[in-house]
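DEPOSITED CHAIN:
***
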Amino acid sequence: MNKRLSISSKLIIIFLVVAIPLIAIIALNFVERYNTRVDRTLEQRIQIAHLAADSFTLFTKDIGRTMEPYGRTIIENQYSPSRAASTLRRLLDIYPLDHAVLTDSSGIVIASTDDSLIGQNLSEREAFSEIIAGNGTIAINPSERGKNTVGFYIVQAIRTDNALEGMVASFVDVVKLHDALPVRVTDGGANIVDSNGYLVYQSEFPQLAENRSYWGGSDVIRAALAGRTATTTNFVVPDTEQPRIGAEVPTEEFGWAAGSDIEERETLGPIRQNILYAALSASAILLIALAVSTFIARGITRSLANLVDAAQMVGHGNLDKSITIRTGDEVEDVARSLDEARLSLKQAVDNLRESNRRIELLLQSTDEGIYGVDIDERCTFSNRAASEMTGYKPEEILGKNMHKLIHHSYSDGSPYPEEECPIYQAYQTGQGIRDDTEVFWRKDGTSFPVEYSSYPIVENGDIRGAVVAFIDITTRKQAQKLSDALNDINTSITSTLDFDKIMQRVVVKATKAMECESSAITIFESGSWVIRYAYGFPGEVIGIGFTDEEAPHARLAAKTRRPVIINNAFDDPRVNPEVQKRFNVRSVIVVPLVVREEVVGAIFFNYHSTFHVFTGVQIDFANKLSAGISLALENARLYATERNISNTLQGALLTMPRKIAGFEFGYLYRSSTEATRVGGDFYDLFELEHGKVGIIIGDVSGKGLEAATLTSLVKNTIRAYALEGYSSAQVMAKTNELVVGASSPSLFTTIFFGILDAETGYLTYCSAGHPRAIVKRKTCEVELLATNSPMVGAFAGLNYIDDHAGIEKGDTLILYTDGVIEARCDGGLFGEDRLVGLVKELKLTRAKEMPQAIFNEVFTRTGGRLSDDVAILTISLEGD
């Protein structure tokens, strides 16, 4: 009799047949999911570790790139320690630094934002020694505990022609690094470990870096420091004892390690819990398959619906609400990935908004007008300055054709075709342009001169439009016009000794240059201000005198030795209103004429038809003009008699200041004969801004009054242009043009002109055909400076160049005319070689004593017979 299986057995067998494979499939599925989760987590950690390594490398190089020009500027300009420290301190405002230092090529700190570090030798530190050894331009030092914090040095080499001139180093504060390093991890943390195994950055536990937590004992850290990528599922964070899953990668350029880790429980806990729940519910699932299937189907459908809703929420731009779906399966993974994408998108949107905000702030904060146009020259954006200068509100500009709006006509009002517009051509040709010869037009129909630039906007290789930046150069144009007029007037002043003829020219040219309606030059005679020269007044005003009561503003100008500016002469207590109304003077500026510290007259510029507010450049022009007229008055007096001319003019040409702060100097002039007392040799010293001094020595061809007149012109021209801030070569070029136009073709001059800085000892000079200057170093070594440019006055349009030299305390700059080296002795010339030998052999003679010492030797060698005038000027910096 065959034994039959019971229904229970069959059900058990069926259950086992169904359950065992199902359980096996479920188990394998969860094992696979577990392994996948581990692999994915490790892959994410590797990616984040690479991101941390790249971010740290870029962060380090960015600091190095920023430090390099700072250090080069300090070294090339030989900044003082305090100025260098002030420059380095700017780095602390940009980066998370505790301090910054500048060392010399041997690692000695010569400037620092922390004064206590000056003088320290950093060459034994790994990064500094690596740079000194010539290995690269940037290096990073292992972390260390500083005076007030924990951090590490980033060292940038300053090299010129592969020669190490110094090093700039920033000490990164690891506490501040936590907020500054652009590594953001939504789950887990990122870390940076130095080459010695010490933690310098951990996004979850920043205090570990501050405590110099040692991570070098971990296998993954050691592997990364050895240059290999390593992962682990059982990484125990030092000091926290938390088991974590992580990865470490090398930072190849510096030998450090970067990594990322996440708490093991946070990553694998949910899937383990799901495995447990699945095992407990497997039997129930089999027994109530339909109910469970229905329940699971509904759960999956609900999860997918929630996932769809979340995706739609992100798609509609709602990025603030987090996406949380707890299903324990792929739906949850997708939801988590979607939430990570939401966070990344939110960060990108926030960054874009912040970038746009900063760009907008930058555009609105500059005083330079800026607007953008598309290829049809329609405005796409504009800033506040553009609106203020053109008079258009932003909404009146946007979308409008900017050429038709503000650039439609030339300065004379004639039409300006759009196809000829350089702005239009810039984005048609793809080439940027800059122009300062045109005008823009305001909303009210007035124009103003501009300097503008236009550069194309290129996107994906296609030109999309242009960006135009412009500034109002009305003041600059007016200043240039007045400067040219002043040069022309100065030329007129120096072109003849006929004072009356000079003044008739001056009042006409000056009135037109000032764009006023009348002017008058008065001479103070017998207690009255007598009009001697006028323009724009009836002829009968010549000879009229005004008392101090009738012209109180002239008396005030004489008392203060300063211009008096009256913008409303009908309502100003400084004038006599009855006199002003009699001559219908509504606005006036009066400038005193000062000759030898004595006010001898005044010059008046008047407006009659309207009230006028005098500009700064007009006031400056009137001031400089008064100096020129005063000089003309002085010259007129000097030429009263030929003897007085000779005596007085020579004294004026050789007048030197008694003292100039920061400098010691000496000078000597000897005429070859008494008959040629007015010679062509001259020298001068005068103070400039910021502790600088102008140095002049020259030799005009010929002798007598004509040569002396040229000497005066050259000296005063050099002074005038130097005081306006031109470089030595620019001053010489402008002086040459003036001399060529104002003097006889047979007259020319050799000149040395230099500008010496008392603080830095930096000498900028232009030697125009003059004998080579000599620098005697405090070591008694002698250096000859170059004669780098042609003589002045020979031809127009010559090029002049600047040269530079360093004058240290204890050094002496020696300048002389050719009467020294061309003095005849021993059957030949005294010569440059003999002069150099003499200077070298002189003991440490002070600058003020050296000219006499040199002259004594020349005089002795020539037997007391000079063949030419001799001028010697020496200067040194005060101090040791």
Q: What stands out?
A: The mean pLDDT is 85. Residues 7-76 form the longest helix (70 residues). The chain has 24 helices and 34 strands. The longest strand covers residues 447-459.
